[in-house]
Design brief:
Radius of gyration: 18 Å
CATH superfamily: Jelly Rolls
Distance between the termini: 47 Å
CATH architecture: Sandwich
CATH topology: Jelly Rolls
Strand content: 15-25%
Order of helices and strands: HHEEHHHEEEEEEEHEEHHH
Structural class: alpha+beta
Number of strands: 11
Helix content: 40-55%
Length: about 230
């Protein structure tokens, strides 16, 4: 009961996450490129906005919806906070998601794009990479079944921090911002629990990424570390 009250008390802060500027307009028809991959520090660029409604351009195929819901419910039930809500509530939350499949080699998320959806890996392996100003790419890690991708952009509306590419054929659950907003309107308590779960998963992944980067830095020559941290 204490955990439940704690979650409800945090609801105003969770709801505030969605009080953000409206999504930027879709690209004009004369835009020549769908994605930009060069790494530069810049402000929000509406040409990079990629909503889930443009998913066909990612060459994703529909996955069996019932199987997808079953897989997501099993995953969410591993979290004690979500498990307390019961199977019907978890199925309601999963029902707001889409389920797709993609081939190995398919770029799922691109660095520096703005997106309104996150991905849950249900099957397969996805590489997370970050392009450096020099053009080199750093492998941040590999996401496998049960892991989330792109959740930070859904929570804060910012650009993607890394690119994600399928290393094997993958099955994915997709939670888009409009679907999350709808759940927030219809079932605020359930939406708050789901957002809390996403936040915990994000925190865990950031800790893992930080640990990997620390290992990489220890392997660099001292002068290179100095340049990287200056």
């Amino acid at each position: 009961m204490r955990a439940r009250f704690s979650l409800l008390s945090a609801l105003p802060e969770l709801l505030a996450l969605f009080q953000r500027p409206k999504a930027p307009p879709r690209p004009r028809p004369d835009d020549s490129r769908f994605f930009a991959t060069q790494f530069v520090d810049r402000h929000e660029d509406t040409r990079l906005y990629v909503p889930w409604s443009r998913a066909p351009e990612l060459h994703a195929r529909p996955h069996d919806r019932q199987r997808g819901i079953d897989a997501v419910v099993r995953l969410m039930a591993l979290d004690r906070g979500l498990a307390r809500l019961g199977d019907p509530a978890l199925r309601l939350a999963a029902g707001h998601m889409d389920f797709v499949e993609a081939d190995a080699g398919q770029r799922l998320l691109r660095q520096d794009e703005q997106g309104d959806f996150l991905l849950i890996v249900l099957q397969g392996t996805v590489a997370e990479e970050r392009a450096q100003p020099s053009g080199a790419r750093v492998r941040l890690g590999e996401a496998r079944a049960g892991e989330l991708l792109g959740e930070l952009s859904v929570l804060d509306g910012g650009t993607r921090l890394s690119a994600c590419t399928a290393l094997t054929p993958v099955t994915l659950a997709v939670l888009a911002q409009p679907a999350l907003d709808k759940l927030l309107d219809e079932e605020p308590r359930l939406a708050a629990a789901l957002i809390g779960w996403i936040g915990k998963r994000l925190s865990q992944r950031l800790r893992q990424t930080s640990a990997r980067l620390s290992v990489l830095l220890t392997r660099l020559p001292a002068e290179a570390v100095g340049r990287a941290t200056s």
